[in-house]
């Protein structure tokens, strides 16, 4: 097989040695003595052969011989010869293919062991085999290449088509955008024309309104000056009256100081007196409670003595009963004198006892059952009896507690009534004391308020400039709602924090830049001074270093110390920054100089260490108090008037007299005692309710337990009767059986013998145990009750001792109270004289206050007129400023948005818009003055213009606009404003303008047109032309690639299908021929199935074989012989498509039995022809005995090589 395969060009991987040079036969190599030859020069010469060859002599159908030879050398190189002519392998292979010897498909041989693998090979391997046989395999590479090109061409065609379609859509989009841009431009023009008309209408009515307001403002200002002059004269009279009242008030204060001093001395004595009286009352109450407890303990002791006596009597009675019981039992000495039995008598006794047990077995069993029940019921009865005894004892105890509680309740009620009577008497005295204390407190508060007013001297010290500034701030708050006030009024700082704020103390806090600008413009026009404005929403805030919050003990961030509303957080952070407040100067120095922290520190006394290292000294308390007291002056004056009014009312209602003054009672003490008694009564009532509930529950439980007790007692009696009855039956049986035995031993009954022999009965033992248990219980209870009696006696002695001590202490306290009474009367006499003088001064002060009130009311009336006129004047001014601001906003809107208004004089270029830097430059109210701090922030004209111009919101408040200058030399042409629009300045028409403009604006905003669509449309048309050319070229390429691919596909399919159809038709016939037998004349069935019907060469070919009379199974489940037959059928069918001139089979019958071997041999014999030669290698004589000729292989020992022998069997056919 190696030689045939080698010469026909089979690849070396299918041979026994994959290295071709190893196939060169070297017979000399086996002989050790002739491996090499050594010459005289010592050179070794190898005698092994250098090359080998195999020659196949093939006779064609025309009878011509062709010699195919393949040789190899030691380098493993092959040489091919045809008729001794050296040729290339391709020519060598083509020559074989002309004779249908296909080397790749190996259609001329089957290797040893490959039969079964042919049948069970993978479907795709079978497909490949058929492709090689059919020749469609030659188109495989071309098919794959053209298929890839076709797919790429189709993809490119689709890409160019999509590109063309995208450009077409882009053109359509640009055309739509062109139309939208034209529509957009028309809407913009319409909106601009409508906006100009609206602004002209608005500006016309603004200027008309400004002229009217200017005239009204002049008239209001003249009336305001007249009223203010009249008010100034009335204020002088008011000040004189207040000065006179102040002199009277000083005298009144002196009297009050004397009264306060005497009252303080009385108050110093009063707590001691009250304390002693409270102690006396407490001792009285304690003594009453002790006496009540002594009486209760005495009653309890008598009851306890009765209980002890009863228990002693019960114990004595029990001992007497026990003695009587023991006397009734026979003595032990008498029992031991009974008869003595012999051994035979003992055996007879035991036999008779067993007989009794047998005859009375039911009665004994029943007796044991009754005895167990009796014992259980007896135990239950004892438990129930003990429970009832406990309930009865609890009932008696609860009744006793209830009686004691009711007695204690009656005593407490009587004591509470007595205290209420004393409290009613003391209320009048308490009222006087309370009034006096209230008067003292009010005088102290009044003195404090007057001291603050005198120290501050606000009305005298407040300068004209400060007054004017405060009035300006108040005016700004009225005109502009977004003005919050001065920073010092919005927080509550102390001395160091005031130092921290520094120049920002009087800064005015506003909402935003626009409000600040409007306020600055107002103050500049009114010439009311300079101010710093801090807008909440526009400040550049310095960052706060959180590390300083817990940096050094004794140092805190000033920002954390201030108390303020949350909305002012940014303003306070701006003013304070990361400044630290230190407890003392040493801590501040440590932070700045030792720790080298670049931070501003302030101490509690006002010392400052700046970031530069410069130190400044602290301020005095008066300097800072003045600054902060100014905001509280009005509140102090209101508190002063309120306190004076309350003191006058107390003076009118206060009762005088020594009786009341000396009766400074302890009403609070009485109230406390009364409340304590009430609480005790409530507690006692709850206890009584609980005792009543307990008593009711105990009686209920006692009633509920009585019936079961009687039932159990009755049941126990029945059990005793049953036990006696059954015992009598057992006794009768014993008497009958032991009758002659008892006569023999001379005893009345056998039970008498057993009693004398074995001691007392179980009943006697049980009765003794009961006596012992009852005796132990009585002795224990008696000992407990005696201990209780001893405890009561000890408690009684202790309470009597306590009562004696309390009586002694009470007598001592009463003596101390009597000694304080004399001194108190002297002080009260002095107090009365000072109070009379005080009433006199109060009366004079009241008269003066009446005069002041009259002047004040007149001044207040005039002041209201002035305020009303001033309010009207400010309202007119404010309205005028709003109108001016609105006019400015309109012009700025036009300037910023490029709106050209029709002008009769000047041009839009004459309108100037000033630029300001946000958060950097201060704006002042006076052009001639400047502010030193650069932290004030003013509004930006850009932001103002934006806020007005965005959505035509021209009717916003003035506080949201910025006013700069309106002295522009321009005059608007209002000729286009119609008569109807001149007459109508209503909000309705304004709303219509706004809505129409907003409608245009919404449409314009929603459109978002592409204004470059027209210019881009031409370029897109050019791109579309290029894309169409690319698409046509790609489509043509795809068409040609598809046609080329289809041509190769058809060729490949035709070749493959021709082979597949032939093999499919042939295989069933071949398989039937190989499986026929006399038993199964039809044979088996075999067929091929293509997994892909359209292109079967792309997928696998499945081979199925059904042996005769077998179910369908996969090829792997067939036996070895069945697989071999199926494989042979497949090989013969494949070979029949392109039959080679010979077919070499190597031991294909190895797995076949003799029957199948004979069938295969017959098939080969039938199909062997002169043009089709079978060469079969076999070891089974059943096969090779049917051959035409035989070739035998044997080993020549001499040559150590193979030799052949041949035998022609044709001559032996007959």
UniProtKB/TrEMBL annotation:
All residue ranges annotated as the SMC hinge domain in the record: 481-592
Residues that span the membrane, as ranges: none
Presence of the UniProt keyword Lipid metabolism in the record: no
Coiled-coil residue spans: 136-194, 280-328, 360-422, 626-736, 775-886
Primary location group: nucleus
InterPro entries cross-referenced by the UniProt entry: P-loop_NTPase, RecF/RecN/SMC_N, SMC, Smc1_ABC, SMC_hinge, SMC_hinge_sf
One BP term from GO: sister chromatid cohesion
Family matches, as SMART domains: SMC_hinge
Family, per entry: Belongs to the SMC family. SMC1 subfamily.
Name of this protein: Structural maintenance of chromosomes protein
Source organism: Mucor circinelloides f. lusitanicus (Mucor racemosus var. lusitanicus)
């Amino acid at each position: 097989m190696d030689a045939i395969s080698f010469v026909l060009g089979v690849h070396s991987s299918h041979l026994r040695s994959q290295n071709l040079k190893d196939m060169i036969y070297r017979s000399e190599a086996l002989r050790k003595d002739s491996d090499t030859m050594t010459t005289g020069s010592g050179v070794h010469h190898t005698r092994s052969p250098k090359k080998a060859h195999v020659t196949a002599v093939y006779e064609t159908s025309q009878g011509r011989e062709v010699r195919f030879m393949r040789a190899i050398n030691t380098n493993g190189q092959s040489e091919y010869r045809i008729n001794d002519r050296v040729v290339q392998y391709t020519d060598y292979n083509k020559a074989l293919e002309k004779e249908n010897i296909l080397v790749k498909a190996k259609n001329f041989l089957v290797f040893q062991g490959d039969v079964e693998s042919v049948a069970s090979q993978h479907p795709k391997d079978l497909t490949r085999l058929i492709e090689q046989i059919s020749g469609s395999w030659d188109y495989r590479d071309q098919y794959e290449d053209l298929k890839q090109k076709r797919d790429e061409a189709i993809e490119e065609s689709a890409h160019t088509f999509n590109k063309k379609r995208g450009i077409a859509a882009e053109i359509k989009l640009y055309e739509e955008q062109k139309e939208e841009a034209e529509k957009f431009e028309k809407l913009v023009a319409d909106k601009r024309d409508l906006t100009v008309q609206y602004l002209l209408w608005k500006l016309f009515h603004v200027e008309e309104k400004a002229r009217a307001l200017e005239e009204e403002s002049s008239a209001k200002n003249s009336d305001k000056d007249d009223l203010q002059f009249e008010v100034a004269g009335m204020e002088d009279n008011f000040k004189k009256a207040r000065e006179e009242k102040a002199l009277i008030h000083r005298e009144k204060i002196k009297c009050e100081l004397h009264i306060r001093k005497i009252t303080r001395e009385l108050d110093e004595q009063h707590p001691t007196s009250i304390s002693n009286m409270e102690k006396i009352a407490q001792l009285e109450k304690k003594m009453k409670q002790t006496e009540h407890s002594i009486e209760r303990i005495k009653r309890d002791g008598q009851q306890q003595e009765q209980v002890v006596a009863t228990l002693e009597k019960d114990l004595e009675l029990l001992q007497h009963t026990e003695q009587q019981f023991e006397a009734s039992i026979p003595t032990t000495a008498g029992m031991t004198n009974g008869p003595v039995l012999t051994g035979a008598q003992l055996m007879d006794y035991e036999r008779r006892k067993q007989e009794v047990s047998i005859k009375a077995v039911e009665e004994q069993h029943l007796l044991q059952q009754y005895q167990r029940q009796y014992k259980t019921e007896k135990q239950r009865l004892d438990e129930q009896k003990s429970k009832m005894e406990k309930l009865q004892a609890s009932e008696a105890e609860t009744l006793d507690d209830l009686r004691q509680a009711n007695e204690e309740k009656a005593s407490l009620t009587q004591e509470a009534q007595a205290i209420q009577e004393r409290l009613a008497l003391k209320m009048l005295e308490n009222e006087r004391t309370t009034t006096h204390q209230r008067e003292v407190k009010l005088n102290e508060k009044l003195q404090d308020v007057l001291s603050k007013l005198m120290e501050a001297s606000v009305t005298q010290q407040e300068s004209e400039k400060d007054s004017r500034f405060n009035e300006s701030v108040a005016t700004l708050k009225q005109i502009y709602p977004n003005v919050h006030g001065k920073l010092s009024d919005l927080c509550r700082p102390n001395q160091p924090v005031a130092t921290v704020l520094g120049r920002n103390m009087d800064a005015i806090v506003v909402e935003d830049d626009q409000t600040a600008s409007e306020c600055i413009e107002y103050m500049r026009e009114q010439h009311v001074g300079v101010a710093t404005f801090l807008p909440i929403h526009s400040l550049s805030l310095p960052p706060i270093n959180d590390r300083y919050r817990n940096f050094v003990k004794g140092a805190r961030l000033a920002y954390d110390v201030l108390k303020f509303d949350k909305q002012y957080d940014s303003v306070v952070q701006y003013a304070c920054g990361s400044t630290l407040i230190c407890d003392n100067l040493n801590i501040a120095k440590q932070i700045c100089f030792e720790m080298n922290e670049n931070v501003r520190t302030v101490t509690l006394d006002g010392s400052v260490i700046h970031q530069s290292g410069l130190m400044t000294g602290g301020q005095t308390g008066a300097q800072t108090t003045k600054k902060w007291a100014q905001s509280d002056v009005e509140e102090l004056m209101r508190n002063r008037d309120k306190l004076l009014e309350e003191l006058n009312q107390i003076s009118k209602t206060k009762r005088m007299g020594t009786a009341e003054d000396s009766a400074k009672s302890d009403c609070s003490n009485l109230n406390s005692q009364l409340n304590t008694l009430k609480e005790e009564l409530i507690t006692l009532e709850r206890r009584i309710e609980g005792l009543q509930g307990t008593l009711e529950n105990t009686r209920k439980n006692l009633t509920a337990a009585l019936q079961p007790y009687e039932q159990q007692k009755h049941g126990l009696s029945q059990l005793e009767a049953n036990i006696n009855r059954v015992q009598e039956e057992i006794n009768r049986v014993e008497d009958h059986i032991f009758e002659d035995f008892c006569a023999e031993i001379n005893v009345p009954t056998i039970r008498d013998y057993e009693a004398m022999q074995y001691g007392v009965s179980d009943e006697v033992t049980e009765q003794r145990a009961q006596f012992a248990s009852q005796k132990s219980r009585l002795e224990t209870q008696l000992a407990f009750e005696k201990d209780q009696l001893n405890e009561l006696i000890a408690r009684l002695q202790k309470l009597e001792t306590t009562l004696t001590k309390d009586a002694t202490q009470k007598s001592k306290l009463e003596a101390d109270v009597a000694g304080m009474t004399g001194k108190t009367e002297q002080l009260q006499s002095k107090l009365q004289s000072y109070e009379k003088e005080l009433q006199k001064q109060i009366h004079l002060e009241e008269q003066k206050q009446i005069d002041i009130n009259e002047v004040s009311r007149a001044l207040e009336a005039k002041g209201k007129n002035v305020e009303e006129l001033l309010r009207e004047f400010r309202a007119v001014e404010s309205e005028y400023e709003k109108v001016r601001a609105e006019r400015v906003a309109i012009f700025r809107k036009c300037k910023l948005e490029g709106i050209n208004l029709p002008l009769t004089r000047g041009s839009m270029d004459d309108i100037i818009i000033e630029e300001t830097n946000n958060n950097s430059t201060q704006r002042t109210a006076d052009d001639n003055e400047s502010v030193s701090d650069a932290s004030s922030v003013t509004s930006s004209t850009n932001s103002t213009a934006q806020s007005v111009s965005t959505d035509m919101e021209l009717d916003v408040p003035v506080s949201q606009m910025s006013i700069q200058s309106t002295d522009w030399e321009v005059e608007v042409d209002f000729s286009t404003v119609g008569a109807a629009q001149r007459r109508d300045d209503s909000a309705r028409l304004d709303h219509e303008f706004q809505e129409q403009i907003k409608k245009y604006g919404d449409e314009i905003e929603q459109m978002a047109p592409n204004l470059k669509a027209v210019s881009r449309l031409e370029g897109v048309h050019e791109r579309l032309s290029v894309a169409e050319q690319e698409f046509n070229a790609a489509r043509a390429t795809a068409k040609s690639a598809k046609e080329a691919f289809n041509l190769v596909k058809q060729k490949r399919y035709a070749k493959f299908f021709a082979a597949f159809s032939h093999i499919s038709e042939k295989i069933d016939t071949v398989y039937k021929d190989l499986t026929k037998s006399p038993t199964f004349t039809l044979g088996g069935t075999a067929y091929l199935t293509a997994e892909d019907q359209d292109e079967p060469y792309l997928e696998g070919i499945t081979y199925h074989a059904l042996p005769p009379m077998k179910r369908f199974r996969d090829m792997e489940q067939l036996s070895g012989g069945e697989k071999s037959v199926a494989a042979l059928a497949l090989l013969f069918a494949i070979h029949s498509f392109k039959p080679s001139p010979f077919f070499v089979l190597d031991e294909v019958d190895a797995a076949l039995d003799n029957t199948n071997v004979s069938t295969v041999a017959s098939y080969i014999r039938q199909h062997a022809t002169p043009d089709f030669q079978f060469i079969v290698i076999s070891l089974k004589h059943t096969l090779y005995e049917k051959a035409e000729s035989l070739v035998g292989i044997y080993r020549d020992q001499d040559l150590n090589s193979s030799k052949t022998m041949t035998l022609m069997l044709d001559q032996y056919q007959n």
